[in-house]
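worker-3 :: picked Lipid A biosynthesis lauroyl acyltransferase
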Amino acid sequence: MYQILIEPKLDHFPGNDEIMDSIRINKILELQIRIVPTQYMWFHRRFKTQPIGYEKIYAN
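worker-3 :: tokens ->
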């Protein structure tokens, strides 16, 4: 079963300050990751490149 949560739109976004906009978005993402950390970056192949002699952990 899938669940989608749709939040209200952000007020006054984007603003005039790109740094503050980035901080704001990062805080929102951090909150969502803390709520359900298992759903964050599950698609990312963090260990895609391995040193010579190490077993590849992802299917080709």
